Amino acid sequence: MRNLDEKTITQAVLARNAETADRRLHQIMTGLVQHLHSFAREVQLTEQEWEKGIEFLTAVGQICSPVRQEFILLSDTLGLSTLVTAQNHRKPDGCTEATVFGPFHVANSPQYELGSDLSNGLPGTRWFVQGKVRNMKGEVIPHAQIEVWQADDDGFYDVQKPNLDAYQGRGVITSDNEGRFHFRTIVPEPYPIPHDGPVGKMLEALNRHPWRPAHLHFMITAEGYERLVTHVFREGGEYLDSDAVFGVRSSLIAEWVEHPAGATPDGENSADPFFTLDFDFVLNAIER
Ligand code: BEZ
Ligand code: FE
Fold first, then answer.
1. What is 149-174 written as a DSSP string?
2. Could you tell me which residue ranges the Intradiol ring-cleavage dioxygenases domain spans (predicted)?
3. How many CA atoms lie within 13 A of 206 on its CB side?
4. Nearest 10 degrees: CA dihedral of 113, 117, 118, 121?
5. How far is CA 1 from CA 11, 15, 16, in A?
6. Which amino acid residue places its CA nearest to atom 2 of ligand 1?
């Protein structure tokens, strides 16, 4: 294959890639090459722009570390994460909707008893969270694993803090025999996604802000049900309509109810105002 030009290069690459025995890889690479070449043709990409793109992707890779996932931020801010989530979790009406996973989930976070304080000592406004896990038939789901993670009241996750060797604002609890769960923590605030790297520069160049509305992350697993990765957002909060990563869904917005100082749901007394959240999750049964 010689003398390839702007008209013949795409077909040449597709033909070369057709040698693979992996049908799915073939399908994915064919689509990728076709769209990448169409993009370059459509915008008439210059050499300087191509170089800038390579430099950008290099910087995205270079800033990645075990606690910094710039490629996920790139996917999130380009809306790719929301697209992939949406097309992989088409569910019947009434199921709790999924949203983006984000880069701050940590494997093996600590297991807690129901009622525990998942903030593990974070300062902030106390928050009592409770709810139920059930299915579309209204049946409760006992022993569901409910993993929670959240930012603190300065908008930072534990993993973003240097030298912190304890988990704070994350943990796993298990629903009881009636599918109920409850725990306490602190109220998380809105936060900007990490924007001191190449993705931050991209947002700035596009005149976009990096903020996410206040939310609490959940990942719920139970045998016989599709895994649910989602958030619960704060009704009336800032950035609900301009989330930097396009993750907000109306059905996931709930009232975080403020209470004056006094008796708290765990039977204690708070000298300060505190918040409660009541939110039920509906899992999608896996068809067999
Ligand atoms: C998060 O909510 O943790 C998150 C999601 C996408 C990008 C950055 C953070
Ligand atoms: Fe988050």
1. E---TTS--GGGSTT--S--SEEEEE
2. 129-157
3. 12
4. -140
5. 11, 10, 10
6. 102
* Pair 172, 111: CB distance under 8 Å: yes
Given this model, what pLDDT does residue 67 score?
81
Q: Which residues contact 266 (CB under 8 A, 6 or more apart)?
A: 115, 128, 184
Count other Cβ atoms within 10 Å, centred on residue 247: 23
To test the pocket of ligand 1, the residue of 63, 73, 74 to mutate (highest count of ligand atoms within 8 Å of its CB) is 73
First to last CA, the chain: 49
* Cβ of 219 less than 6 Å from ligand 1: no
Mutate to test the pocket of ligand 1, among 245, 248, 249, 252 (most ligand atoms within 8 A of CB): 245
Ligand nearest to the CA of 243: 1
Q: What is the pLDDT of residues 64-97, one digit of tens each?
A: 998 889 999 999 999 999 999 999 999 899 999 9
Q: Is 245 in the pocket of ligand 1 (CB under 6 A)?
A: yes
What is the residue extent of each domain of the chain?
A: 1-45, 75-283
Buried b (16+ CB within 10 A) or exposed e, 72-96: bbbbbbeeebbeebbeebeeeeebb
**Which positions of the chain have pLDDT values less than 70?**
none
Atom of ligand 1 nearest to the CA of 151: 3
Q: How do residues 180-229 score in pLDDT, each as one tens digit?
A: 999 999 999 999 999 999 999 999 999 999 999 999 999 999 999 999 99
What residue owns the CA closest to ligand 1's atom 3? Answer: 102
Amino acid identity at 157? Y
Which of 149, 193, 218, 243 maximizes ligand 1 atoms within 8 Å of its Cβ, making it the mutation to test the pocket? 193
